[in-house]
Amino acid sequence: MGEIEDVVLRCTGSAAVSVRALGGGDAGDSRSVRLADGREVFVKTNPDGMPGAVAAEAASLAWLAEPEVVPVPAVLGSTERHLVTEHLGSGPPSAAAAEELGRGLARLHATGASAHGAPPPGGPTDAWIGLAPMRNEPCPDWPEFYADQRVRPYLRRAVDAGLLGGEAAALVDRVCERLPELEGADEPPSRLHGDLWAGNVHWDGRDTWLIDPAGHGGHRETDLAMLALFGCPHLDRVLAAYEEVRPLAEGWRARVGVHQLFPLLVHAVLFGGGYARQAVAAAREALG
């Protein structure tokens, strides 16, 4: 019996009949497994050297699985490197599903978190966003959390890698210093997906699902800024429906660059200097 077959049997209680490799995903290999009892499950295998990644994702999925919000795949079991969930079908994006995504995200964010930076219950403090380490430690306010646990750690890595020079680094650091005034409305911490780029919104032809979360407590505009970063189908419909349920604070569009700064710095460190230039542009936009 192979490793995947053994994991699936232990997690589901049913033997694997067939295993099919799936494409996509930077943070691990994925497979669709047909079981002897007729079910089809999804198995994600993380690379070595990512301690706590499976535990963090499983805790995030459980935390996001609130009624009447955006659905997430059910966790069927896990090991240190493997996560087994229900398998999702695929289909084209639709405007109706996008609107329900917006309404569901508004309800999800409103369920709240214990603090900015707080991990999901049972989730590790040292988690991951894709292949990048990401610390989740409760902070008294969002500016401190976002500056110290998100932007500045990756700013230092980008500088050390020669991706950002002194002037550019100073610009990004100025955003961190001014976060209390750039934050907008002082809102309670929201329950965030945490890595909500368009690739982590799964369309099945009827509904949308949230996958591959990096859940934590934070500012709700962060999830929405991530959706806009790499483009999301029917994004205007998503945002309009969101605001029907829970209107965003005045001036939120001007703050998009603030919330995109962290993922752009992460991408710069992982994938190269083009993203560093985008991060500098986002910092300039944030400062006006």
UniProtKB/TrEMBL annotation:
Keywords: Kinase, Transferase. It comes from the Bacteria. Pfam families: Fructosamin_kin. GO terms for molecular function: kinase activity. InterPro entries: Fructo-/Ketosamine-3-kinase, Kinase-like_dom_sf. Belongs to the fructosamine kinase family. This is Fructosamine kinase family protein. It comes from Saccharopolyspora gregorii.
